[in-house]
Amino acid sequence: MYKVFLVFLLMVSSIIAFSAIPAYSAEVTNEGSGVIKGKVSVKVRKYKKDSVVYIERVEGDFPPPQEHAKMDQRELTFIPHVLTVLRGTTVDYHNDDDVAHNVFSPDEVADKMNLGTWLSGEVRSYTFNKLGNAVMLCNVHPEMEAFVVVLQNPYFAKTDKEGDYEIENVPPGEYTLKVWNQKYKAKPKSVDIKKDETVTVDFKLKR
Fold first, then answer.
1. Residue 186, domain CATH
2. Rounded CA gap, 105 and 130, in Å?
3. Least CB-packed of 65, 107, 150, 206 within 10 Å?
4. pLDDT, tens digit, 9 for 90 and up, residues 146-182
């Protein structure tokens, strides 16, 4: 009876000790961080969506996620149309159509890669190690087009169909805020983020 009671105590102690260990969180938060939000406007409405607003550079190291990013080829369309990743991220290209597809890029950011042509259900991968943007094309279907934007830090956001964006968890500091758009441009803007502050920065895109 004493041995059974002792085993019971050991089990209870183990449960209490385990519950005292804080849960792991994959999201890194910055104490006293700020928010940058705003709107990107442009005359041609369809280009409001999928602009990338980003901080050009933030001090520190930002290792890419172990989990691969994903770009589908579905109904003869790249999905998403714009994929934003950290430098060093591997992107998996899926063929979800019933026809053969190819992925290639003429841009130096992607090392002018050509992943070849593959059939439905297959996946090819590429790791982006250079900063900048690269167009993704399919030489089987020349009407297909997408973009991969490779950044130095995780403080970025894509605009919605109304041109709105929001970058959360920004550490306090002075930064240069930029916009990437597949057709239009905007001048960079300086932004000073203070503790627990929300700053509004709007951009107007032009040719």
1. 2.60.40.1120
2. 14
3. 206
4. 999 999 999 999 999 999 999 999 999 999 999 999 9
Phi, psi of 65 (to 5 degrees): -65, 145
**138 domain-assigned:** yes
Q: Which of 170, 167, 124, 131 is nearest to 149 (CA)?
A: 131
State which amino acid sits at residue 193.
I
Last residue of a domain, one of 105, 124, 151: 151
pTM: 0.85
Determine the average pLDDT of the residues in 90-116: 98
What secondary structure does DSSP assign to 63-86, as a single string?
A: PPPSSPEEEEEETTEEESSEEEEE
Q: Which one-letter DSSP state was computed for residue 181? A: -
Q: Is 201 exposed, middle or buried (0-12, 13-18, 19+ CB in 10 A)?
A: middle
SS3 17: helix
Residue 110, classed as helix, strand or coil, is: helix
Co-location of 103 and 54 in the same domain: no
